[in-house]
Amino acid sequence: MKTILILILSSVLSSNTFAVNNETNELKEIKQSISEQNRQISSLKKVNDELKKSVDYLSVKQETDAKNIDSLKSEIRKLAEKDNSIEDNLTNANKKIDDNAKASDDKISSRTAWGIGVGVVLLVVALLVYLILYKRINSKTSSIDKMKKVQDELQKAQTALQEESLKLDNKMIELLDKQLNVSKQQSSQPASSSQKPDHSLALKVADEIVRIKTNLMRMDASVKGHKQLSKAVERIEVNFLANGYEIVDMLGKPYYEGMKVAASFVEDETLPKGTQKITRVIKPQINYNNVMIQAAQIEVSQNI
Which of the given ranges, 66-70, 144-148, 276-280, has the highest pLDDT on average? Predict the structure, then answer.
């Protein structure tokens, strides 16, 4: 009878171990896919930033060209006023010359034609300059519109990648939750007093929880799947606590000397003088039954 019970127990443990190994392989594949998605998102962000710079530059250029056109319009108005003044002066001169001598009619006519010709030439030149600048401005406006369309397409692609990343993270959360449940069942079975608990799965789950929460903070909450994944993370954190594990929340908290962490420091002049603040958690601090089993790796921004 004892032999039969031992065989049954061994069979159950083997099946649980096989399930965990399969889910671990799926977890690795999902992590690789998520890493690739994150790289693509980073690349799109860089392209998006460059396009924004180009759009800003073209906008400034457009404003400058518009000011130049306004200046040319002002010059055209002045030339038109001068032309009217010239015509008036010539008309008065013609009257005076007609009164004084008919012989000077040819000379006055010549001067009149010369003045009108100069005015017409100036108007034609100014009009040509205006048309050239107008075409250039229209061309620049068209380029800005194209840039904005490309930027919109990139934004859509980035959103699609984020939604796909959220789907993969949801699948990962499901796998992690299953693994935690399997681990909990195995740990509830009798074990020898000398056997130490295996924390490897818990540490892996904690790292993934922190990574997913960091990604959620960086994403817009309106992205499809954001709310669903946030709730899934809350559920697995509750399960995590039920297994005796605690992830110590350090992000955004002040840093002080003597903390049991591995810290790297970066300068940030936007912070108040003398401030040291934890702005990135690379690896979280994990406690098991109120005892630290993993020290945190953090990045501290400071202005000292």
Answer: 276-280
**41 — pLDDT class (breaks 50, 70, 90):** confident
**pLDDT at residue number 108:** 47
In angstroms, rounded to a whole number, what is the distance separating the alpha carbons of residues 78 and 95? 26
